[in-house]
Design a protein that fits this description.
The protein is mostly helical and 75 residues long. The chain has 5 helices and 2 strands; from the N terminus they run E-H-H-H-H-H-E. The protein has a two-stranded antiparallel ribbon.
């Protein structure tokens, strides 16, 4: 049984009242790559990118990342 990592970027964007475009510009990644992260399709994430996301969103890595067991319902 395999779990997955969920990116709660939308949650943090809403809390910070920030647009995806604004986040993309601040972090320096494309809208397409940000979308891949948001939709859980990313296979890898650089620690430096995670740090930039945390800086832009004024949060901790744990605010963005969540581990979920396979078959576990979302919030």
């Amino acid at each position: 049984m395999e779990g997955e990592i969920i990116f709660n970027i939308d949650v943090m964007l809403a809390k910070r009242k920030m647009s995806v475009t604004e986040l993309s510009e601040q972090v320096g990644i494309t809208m397409a790559n940000l979308s891949v992260l948001k939709n859980g399709k990313a296979k890898a994430l650089k620690v430096s990118t995670l740090a930039k996301l945390c800086r832009a969103l004024h949060c901790q890595p744990g605010d963005l990342l969540e581990y979920r067991e396979e078959g576990e319902a979302g919030e």
